[in-house]
């Protein structure tokens, strides 16, 4: 099969695939829990995508649209938090916006958001995006404000600049208590929030519609196929053979059994740092839900903290919640590729699992709750839910997207706490790398900035 792309993977919207049946006819899912392994072990693919998260599902969609035989491998979210594989995409609220103080992350966001309608259409109508607007708040004339506005102009992104003491700001956001001498960058359109859960589902369904196979099981190992060449991706029920493998498992990248990138197939480790992230959810009463009904997503920075707020969102349990995350730190308003939304490094895979199970740290949750009450005074929550997440960082502040060695192993990981909104473009770049290498016509994004770094 030719790996030439032609026009299959581009930056622009595509026509809807001729596939419209979203049944599991293409799926290798073994829902019965037994059997199926022998018959599926002979199943061969051009590419196996390991990791059914935001970037992995996006890459699978773009690969399937290019016409290759692709399997998207990864488990569904478990009902019980104490079981299964943990993922940062097991969440209902992630900020999406086109403005950013970093020019690369701004471009990744613009390209991804411009394809949201395409993803929805190809998925059969999965609703994952709410266009409620976005507000960025920081001290006046800080670097983050200047660079955010400058990048918006360069990318032709529409936004308004307000002052926190202005009448316009107070009329638009009467519920916020922002000190004087703060600048506010407001995106009214093409911004808001996404449901990470639903975005993953939309990408997976769209990939399946284009011919991808969905294998809804955890990958227990990836190794070189010594007999037939390529790789074997092992799940509890299946042995999948593929010529190439794209590993997109975020914080689980260095688990020890997924990256056979050594000269003789030895496992390698990437230069990744995984850090704790704390969030709090205020369960809203009907009064607070009503008065915050027009609230955009918000990012707030000052010299002591940075925080992000999601507007009222209905969660699967029926509750309506206001979510806040972030951290207390010095110099948070400064632009930095290495701004890390977390306090503590998670060194081992067991550390990551334990953190996800813990629900976070009580002290950090109290700090976040106090900040939320400061920014939106008068809240009378019905309850507070503390939650834990993990973000994976690279030394460059850019995702790792590219090959490990020359034998067909690729990675797409290291979202740096910024990747959810931009995951479709990150996945598209990963798909291009798998099929033909970094796109030659790509002038705005440099390959060197995304190269994976393997530890010695």
Automatic annotation (TrEMBL):
Cofactors (names)? FAD
> Which branch of life, at top level?
Eukaryota
- Boundaries of every FAD dependent oxidoreductase domain copy: 46-431
Its protein name is FAD dependent oxidoreductase domain-containing protein
What family is reported? Answer: Belongs to the MSOX/MTOX family.
Q: Name one Pfam family in it.
A: DAO
Q: What InterPro entries does the database record attribute to this sequence?
A: FAD-dep_OxRdtase, FAD/NAD-bd_sf, MTOX
Give one GO term, molecular function aspect.
flavin adenine dinucleotide binding
Keywords assigned by UniProt, alphabetized:
FAD, Flavoprotein, Oxidoreductase
Per the UniProt entry, what species is this protein from, by scientific name?
A: Pycnococcus provasolii
């Amino acid at each position: 099969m030719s790996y030439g792309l032609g026009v299959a993977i581009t930056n622009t919207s595509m026509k809807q695939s001729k596939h419209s049946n979203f049944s599991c006819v293409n799926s290798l899912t073994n829902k019965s829990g037994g059997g199926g392994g022998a018959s599926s072990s002979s199943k061969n693919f051009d590419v196996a995508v390991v990791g059914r998260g935001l970037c992995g599902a996006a890459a699978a969609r773009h690969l399937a649209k290019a016409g290759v035989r692709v399997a998207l491998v990864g488990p569904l979210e478990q009902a019980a938090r104490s079981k299964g594989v943990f993922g940062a995409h097991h969440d209902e609220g992630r900020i999406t916006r086109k403005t950013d103080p970093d020019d690369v992350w701004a471009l990744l966001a613009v390209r991804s958001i411009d394809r949201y309608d395409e993803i929805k259409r190809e998925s059969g109508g999965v609703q994952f995006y709410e266009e409620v607007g976005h507000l960025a708040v920081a001290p006046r004339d800080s670097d983050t404000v200047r660079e955010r506005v400058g990048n918006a102009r360069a990318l032709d992104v529409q936004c308004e600049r307000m002052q926190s003491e202005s009448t316009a700001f107070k009329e638009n956001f009467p519920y916020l208590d922002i000190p004087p001498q703060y600048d506010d960058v407001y995106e009214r359109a093409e911004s808001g929030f996404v449901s990470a859960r639903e975005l993953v589902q939309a990408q997976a369904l769209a990939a399946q519609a284009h011919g991808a196979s969905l294998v809804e099981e955890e990958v227990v190992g990836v190794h070189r196929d010594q007999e037939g060449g390529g790789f074997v991706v092992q799940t509890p029920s299946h042995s999948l053979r593929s010529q190439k493998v794209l590993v997109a498992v975020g914080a689980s990248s260095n688990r020890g059994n997924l990256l056979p990138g050594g000269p003789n197939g030895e496992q390698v480790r990437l230069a990744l740092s995984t850090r704790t992230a704390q969030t709090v959810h205020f369960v809203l009463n009907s009064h607070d839900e009503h008065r915050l009904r027009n609230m955009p997503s918000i990012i707030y920075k000052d010299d002591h903290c940075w925080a992000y707020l999601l507007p009222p969102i209905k969660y699967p349990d029926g509750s309506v919640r206001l979510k806040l995350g972030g951290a207390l730190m010095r110099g948070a308003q400064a632009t930095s590729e290495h701004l890390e939304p977390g306090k503590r490094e998670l060194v081992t895979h067991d550390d990551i699992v334990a953190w996800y199970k813990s629900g976070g740290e009580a002290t950090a949750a109290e700090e976040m709750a106090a900040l939320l009450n400061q920014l939106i005074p008068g809240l009378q929550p019905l309850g507070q839910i503390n939650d834990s997440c993990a973000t994976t960082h690279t030394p460059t502040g850019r995702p790792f997207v590219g090959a490990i060695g020359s034998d067909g192993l690729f990675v797409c990981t290291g979202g740096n706490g910024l990747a959810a909104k931009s995951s479709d473009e990150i996945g598209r770049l990963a798909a291009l790398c798998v099929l033909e290498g970094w796109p030659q016509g790509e002038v705005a994004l440099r390959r060197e900035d995304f190269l994976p770094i393997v530890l010695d």
